[in-house]
Amino acid sequence: MILLQGILKMEAKKIKKIAVLGAGVIGNSWTANFIWKGYPVNLWLFSSDEEITAKQAIQEHLDGLAINGIVKNDQIPKMMKLVNFITSLEFAVKDVQLIIEAIIEDLAIKQQFLAEIDKYANPDTIYASSTSYKLISDISKFSEFSERCIGAHPYNPPHLIPLVEITIPEGERGSEKTAEVAAKFFESINKVPIILKKDVSGFIGNQIQSAVGTACGELIMNGVCTPEDIDKAMTFGPGLRWAIVGPYLVGQLGGGEGGIKGLTLHIGKANLEDPTEQAIKELEFYANFIQGEVNKEMANRSREFGSDNETLRKFRDKVLITLLKEHKKI
Ligand SMILES: NC(=O)c1ccc[n+]([C@@H]2O[C@H](COP(=O)([O-])OP(=O)(O)OC[C@H]3O[C@@H](n4cnc5c(N)ncnc54)[C@H](O)[C@@H]3O)[C@@H](O)[C@H]2O)c1
């Protein structure tokens, strides 16, 4: 109950200092992101030897931002001073409002680690695990303070990829409020958080990537193409479009005037193995449902990013041409 009261008082704007636990690929990139946005970070190192490589990686991430005109070179030393490299877990977590865990992907280690953190962190501090495939319900299983725990899955490199997928421990052990506060914080630094309705392994993106991986493996092993062909196909085909709008808005544009409903009926009917009356009815039901969902999605978008067929097409073409210029394919 003490914890719940603490978490209920937590607000995104109260997050002033962050602990990043783990100075590997993800921890270093998260750290670069937070210091770029002005937040002091306690970066916890598993071993003090990691300080040199972590410093170098963070510096390289910030240099990359400067080379591309996002920050100024002379701002970087000030940002680097915001990182406190630290090997004491107690001191890493005791004075922060958000903990980003980015240690090795091992359930037992993550569970023990969290039990240790329970001893030192304030009860209203949010604990966000970067886990790729473990459930936050399992990671927080032995925690006294599971309501402050969320999965907050980034994509490499987190300082550039906006998506953060948030999961909540199942049932009463989790708190939607914690997820909402974290989402608000991530939005404030220009991330795109999504709170999942269920705690699932692989979140959304990794489940999709796994399905793509399976399809790619089959194509290669069936002698259809090489890995290089697949990389080319994705880079210069579907990947280009998915970098701009997702598969549902691609479908909306692909259907022309008929939208995604028209596309689903057209392609669906042509490919029905057994076009019974029932199968056609089910297809029509799905096409209507998906069109309704896409209409809601477009209504949530601003005109700048495309909120109807015409503005969406214009936005797609603008970003597509920008990407093609970088690929020197236009
Ligand atoms: N690499 C990715 O593309 C990616 C993307 C999203 C999420 N993640 C997740 O982020 C987390 C970190 O992944 P990473 O790719 O940065 O791994 P990494 O191997 O680069 O870093 C892991 C860190 O954990 C530390 N570590 C090792 N053993 C430990 C122990 N017993 N206790 C505490 N710390 C220990 C290491 O010193 C290292 O700093 C994982 O949960 C992973 O699933 C990775």
Question: Outline of this structure?
Answer:
With 330 residues, this protein is α/β, with parallel strands linked by helices. Helix content is 52%, strand content 10%. It has 15 helices and eight strands.
What does this entry look like structurally?
There is one protein chain. With 330 residues, the chain is of the alpha/beta class. The protein is 52% helix and 10% strand. The chain contains 15 helices and 8 strands. An 8-stranded mixed sheet has the order 3-2-1-4-5-6-7-8. Helix 12 (247-254) packs across helix 13 and helix 13 (259-271) runs antiparallel to helix 14 (277-299). The model has no long low-confidence stretch (mean pLDDT 96). The structure holds nicotinamide-adenine-dinucleotide. Nicotinamide-adenine-dinucleotide binds next to helix 2 and helix 6.
Mean pLDDT: 96
Give the strand content.
5-15%
Q: How far from one another are the termini?
A: 61 Å
What gyration radius follows from the Cα positions, in whole Å? Answer: 23 Å
Which geometry do the CA atoms define? globular
The CATH homologous superfamily of the largest domain is named NAD(P)-binding Rossmann-like Domain
| Distinct helical segment count | 15
Q: Using the coordinates shown, work out and report the CATH topology of the largest domain.
A: Rossmann fold
Largest sheet descriptor: 8 strands, mixed
User: In the CATH classification, which architecture of the largest domain applies?
Assistant: 3-Layer(aba) Sandwich
Low-confidence stretches: none
- Written as H for each helix and E for each strand, in order along the chain, the element string is HEHEHHEHEHEHEEHEHHHHHHH
SS elements, strand count: 8
